[in-house]
């Protein structure tokens, strides 16, 4: 098995949360690009909704990361 196919096999076995954690930066970037496009179309409320979604994802990722590192948020 080549390195590329070994990586593909590992990725195929990854759970949704694992993949989301791995690509959270890319996901947040894509959401922001969508929000910018919506603003350019004059759809400010829709853009705000997507930015709110991105904020929730980023905050959730941050909480998970801090919890995994044993950081107390109090």
Largest sheet descriptor: none
The secondary structure category is mainly alpha
* Share of β-strand residues: under 5%
The coarse silhouette is elongated
Count the domains.
Answer: 1
The count of helical stretches stands at 4
Query: What's the rounded overall pLDDT mean?
Result: 85
In total, how many beta strands? 0
Helical content band: over 70%
Spans of at least 5 consecutive residues with low confidence: none
Global Rg: 17 Å
What order do the helices and strands follow? HHHH
Q: Distance between the terminal alpha carbons, to the nearest Å?
A: 48 Å
Folded structure, characterized:
With 74 residues, this protein is mainly alpha-helical. It has one domain (20-74). It has 4 helices and no strands. It has helices spanning 3-13, 16-22, 24-40, 44-68. Helix 3 runs antiparallel to helix 4. The chain is elongated and about 40 Å long. The mean pLDDT is 85.
Task: Quickly list its features.
74 residues; 4 helices; 81% helix
Secondary structure blueprint with pairings:
Elements: H1 3-13, H2 16-22, H3 24-40, H4 44-68
Summarize this structure briefly.
This protein has 74 residues and is mostly helical. It is 81% helix and 0% strand.
């Amino acid at each position: 098995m080549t390195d590329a196919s070994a990586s593909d096999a590992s990725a195929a076995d990854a759970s949704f949360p694992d993949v989301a954690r791995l690509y959270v930066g890319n996901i947040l970037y894509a959401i922001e690009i969508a929000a910018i496009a919506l603003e350019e179309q004059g759809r400010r409320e829709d853009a705000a909704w997507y930015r709110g979604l991105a904020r929730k994802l980023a905050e959730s990722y941050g909480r998970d990361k801090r919890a995994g590192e044993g950081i107390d948020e109090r």
